[in-house]
Amino acid sequence: MQSGLDVAPQDPATNPEQEAWCRVTTVEARLEHQAGQLTEILNTFHELRLYVEQRATHTVPRDAGPTTGQPADAAQTPAHSDPLSAQSFTCGRDRLRPASPDSFDGEREKGRAFINSCDLYMSLTPDAFPDEQTRINWVLSYMKGGRAARFAARTLRYPNSHDGVPCFGTYAEFCTQFIAEFCPRDEKRKATTTFKTPAYHQGSRSVDEYINEFQDLAEEAQFPDGVQLVFRFRHGLDPRIEAKVANIVDGRPSDERVQEWIDVARLVDYNTRANQDFRSAVTKTRTAPPPVVRNPGTPAFRVLPAPPSRPVAAAPSAPPAPASRSLPPGVPINIDLSRQRSGTPIICR
After folding, report:
1. Where is this region: Disordered (predicted)?
2. Helix or strand or coil: residue 143?
3. CB proximity list for 207: less than 8 A, separation 6 or greater
4. CA 245 to CA 256: how far, in whole Å?
5. Ramachandran area for residue 203 (φ above 0: left; ψ -120 to 50: alpha; else beta)
6. What's the pLDDT at 154?
């Protein structure tokens, strides 16, 4: 029978050796657990990488997919491999995520831009397009409205009525038909005609805008580089800039290389605008009034306000002149009476 006072177990803190041994054991157990977790994470990541690579090359079997179990080649993968090594991450183009092209409705003015954006996307991600039909079908997937949607529907239905033969054997054939259907007609003729009119001249536009349009027209007109192309570039350029470029003594561009004229014209335009900004700043500085400098010891003069002016009394106006009295009517004169008196003889007395 135990007594009422039970003996408490000994606190490990009272035994330093036992406490240290417990801590070492705990640390070892945690390290082993973390090592196991790290190995499992690396194996899973390696399996995911293989799965993604197989998906990119379209060689994934139907039952393939990432699992949490041990991969088939896990024995060849060391558990201590560096997760930041080149084998664990893909680099370069595999990490690119280019912007997808916009949906196309068949408008001719947008056809060239659409096919260019598709070509750019496929050139940045070549592994995603292993064959010609994949490229064609991918472009058709963005033709969703108007004439473009009807064209895509006809192309996709074509193999059904031709024993599985695709409508276009190569992507080049598809692009040729696309240009004929959805790009502006007679681009070469229109561009050549534009070069014969002042419509392509620089005018009030900037040099960069003029150069961009000129390069597009030269490409559409299929003008070869040479004297004729340089002549047309000079003819449409701003006469002031053209004269400065033509009068360069050292480093003048060749009359057979239009790209040299383009580079020098841009440089001259930049220098001209920079000089105009400088002259404008200098003119503003010269026209500004000089600041008033006052010595610290000189007291500032106080300008008193002018006294209020007294109101000027108006000059008295002269009284109005009295009206002149009219003469009374005269007595009528009897002319015959005077004549009669003159005829009477005068008697002297």
Report:
1. 59-108, 284-349
2. strand
3. 237, 238, 241, 265, 266, 269
4. 14
5. left
6. 93
